[in-house]
Amino acid sequence: MTTQATEAAAAATLTSRHLLGIAGMTADEIGLVLDTAIAMKEIGGRAIKKVPTLRGRTIVNLFFEPSTRTRTSFEIAEKRLSADTLSIAAATSSVTKGESLLDTVRNIEAMSPDMIVMRHASSGAPHLLARTCRSAIVNAGDGMHEHPTQALLDAFTIREHKGRLAGLKVAIIGDLLHSRVLRSNVILLNTMGAEVWACGPSTLMPPGIGGFGVRATTSVDEAVEGADVVMMLRIQHERMHGHFIPSVREYFTLFGLTPERARRARSDVIIMHPGPMNRGVEIDSEVADGPYSVILEQVSNGVAVRMAVLYLLAGRDIDVERGEG
Amino acid sequence: MKLLLKGGRVVDPANARDGAFDVLIEDGRIARVGKDLPADGAEVFEIRPGWIVAPGLIDIHVHLREPGQEHKETVLTGTEAAVAGGFAAVACMPNTEPVNDHAGITQFILKKAAEAARARVYPIGAVSIGSKGEQLAELGEQKTAGCVAFTDDGKPVATALLMRRALEYAGMLGVPVIDHCEDPSLKGDGVAHEGYYSSYLGLRGIPGAAESIMVERDVSLAELAGAHVHIAHMSARESLRAVRAGKARGVRVTCEVAPHHFTLTDEALDGAVKYDTNLKMNPPLRSAADRDAMIEGIADGTVDAIATDHAPHHPDEKMLEFDRAPFGIVGLETAVPLVFDRLVHTGRITIGRMIELLSVNPARVINVPGGTLAEGSPADVTVLAPDREMIVSAESLKSRSRNMPFDGWRLRGGVAATIVGGRMVYKNA
């Protein structure tokens, strides 16, 4: 662990006991998570990737929506911090038997977990839990609302490459309407002083996006022009059914990130994607696998950032350094 | 059995009367309205200075939930809430279980209302069997049983053809068709007004056009049928424009606005309690521009009535994820305070206009007695206390349900007494 990171972690704490969204976090708090993640990333590089920091703490991962990447990332983060963890997928829970969300969570709480990491298809579901439950709630993605740990790991990745967030031009391109990744990233990047461009077809543009504090455009070329960061969002194949797009083929023609379009960005651009990626739909494989792509780094950094979040929320009074095993 | 309402200001727009009068009630009817009437053996109810004696208020959009959903509300608890809110009469929506689409259910509701002996109850029947939009219900039988209007409320009347026939048929019977205007494809899975706040909170949106498209349809069909259409719980400024245009060319279209739609906006969803399901109703809380347009329509006469869309739900049903909770809030006991606080005391409407919106016009829309203090008419009277300061308390509601966003609100304006057929059924003097 670096001295610098330890000091940063000791300098402040998060004001909320939950992580419901990026909304409400200050620039200092975001900086604290990112600084703490530097130390956490170092743990992941060791031969023995485990510290006893959260030993004896119980964390329940409650996933009401299918997720491989985020759930795995949280599980690894929890295990590296020595927490006792349990993952529940909705298909195997009593939700399918008609039990309400609150009853499901109250039953889990009766077994005294310390934290609940939840992914849910309904926007605001973690806010409902935070109002009514004892445990600290970590939002692992709620409907079309927020995905705060994704935005934090994206910011961490950008900062690793650019050394800063302020003043960067970040273009976010794709299905803006349905994306929680968009909302969390916009709030975070605006808070940290970046210039955010949001680009997608007019049918997938959130109504009232003018209030988001972004430059909205339907032109990929305009969004990518001179960008420091290009972040592609997944387009779901079934979007054809709501008459949002005519076909994935046409979508790629108009909005796919091709090498030609990517060349409009700055020469040191980084290309990001929160996954899962649809090759040939929103992104050309040549770009996804190319030298500017940091897509797999995002996944690696996800573990470190989630360790930082869990540590800051569950182990506010724990000294990470002393816990080194 | 005589009752004398002594002192106070009588506001009776139907008879162009506004001034200091006494009101004598005898055998359930208004016997006399005049200056300094002698008690002459009547029980005397002293009207305090500043109070208003008005024709009984009528709420033409209430969900009493009985039969079938008695855990939310019953005819008894719903009419207790009504009289506590100053309403001497309510018209109840047919989306019960089973749907009120035949005379047996109407008779059942009327029997329950007679047993409760609180507010008058006017059942509204379903336009189509099961409100499924497939086959006309027996509107004639239903009218004979006591229905005063027809609607498939909760849903729009499904097709233009069904709406046309319903208007023609109901027109023959001399009753209006009330429509819950909403284009199902534009509404989709929407749960909040489509705009910045729905986008920011990640909630699926319902644009104002989902409502106004069907208002336009219904105005055209009322014109074609030469019949009376009433637009329920209007919320979007585009709808107001459609009603205004229809009225201007002589179409028999009337409309109502609910108190929450002239009080709140979608901004409340991002308030201190985020995703509060007590802010989820259909139509949704709309933008500030829509809210302001509703107030303008209320003030300029385009809006005929204020109706609550009182929609009780059990706490278990509301304590869900926002997009899974049912739509609707209770409104009977907060309507009068909200009208006073937000419309009268702010100078947007006079008390006379308030009585038109809550009594005179509702009676005319559904063609029932009431809305007047004319001598000889049924003695339905509401005594209002315009300056009463109150703190809304969900806990102390008479309704069986508590689902409302106004808990803890300080409002000025209340109800001192409600008299139905000469009987004092509520008194808070």
Q: How would you describe this structure to a colleague?
A:
The complex is a heterodimer of chains A (325) and B (429). Chain A has 325 residues and is an alpha/beta fold. Helix content of chain A is 38%, strand content 14%. In chain A, the strands form 2 sheets. In chain A, strands 7-6-5-8-9 form a 5-stranded parallel beta sheet. Chain A is globular, with a radius of gyration of 20 Å. The two termini of chain A are 12 Å apart. The relative contact order of chain A is 0.16. A 6-stranded mixed beta sheet of chain B has the order 3-2-7-19-20-21, with helices on one face. Chain B has a 4-stranded mixed beta sheet with strand order 5-4-1-6, with no helix packed on it. A 4-stranded parallel beta sheet of chain B has the order 13-16-17-18. In chain B, helix 7 packs parallel to helix 8. Chain B has 13 helices and 21 strands. Chain B has 2 domains: 98 residues, Urease, subunit C, domain 1 (Roll); 310 residues, Metal-dependent hydrolases (TIM Barrel, Alpha-Beta Barrel), CATH 3.20.20. In chain B, strand 4 and strand 5 form a beta hairpin. At the A-B interface, helix 5 of A face helix 6 of B.
What keyword list fits this structure?
heterodimer, A: 325 residues, alpha/beta, four-stranded parallel sheet, 9 strands, 38% helix, disordered N terminus, disordered C terminus, B: 429 residues, Urease, subunit C, domain 1, TIM Barrel, six-stranded mixed sheet, four-stranded mixed sheet, 13 helices, 31% helix
Care to give the gist of this entry?
The complex is a heterodimer of chains A (325) and B (429). With 325 residues, chain A is α/β, with parallel strands linked by helices. Chain A has helices at residues 3-11, 27-44, 69-80, 101-109, 125-132, 148-162, 180-191, 220-224, 248-255, 259-262, 285-288, 295-314; strands spanning 58-63, 84-89, 115-120, 136-142, 169-173, 195-199, 215-217, 229-232, 270-272.
